[in-house]
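Encode chain A's predicted structure.
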Amino acid sequence: MDIPEAAEQFNAKMKDNRPNCDDAGMARGILADPLYQRGVPIAKAICVAIYGRVLPRED
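Encoded structure for chain A:
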């Protein structure tokens, strides 16, 4: 089992575990980072196709 799959399972089991507690918060954070990172190469390719280069963040 890879990390995103384990985090998905943990989030599904723990998100409603206790009222007023965020037992699955860390799992959601782990999921957010790999999901974001998967899109980075595609976004860079689009940027290169449009602008001919990867723009600096401040542009």
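The chain has a mean pLDDT of 86.
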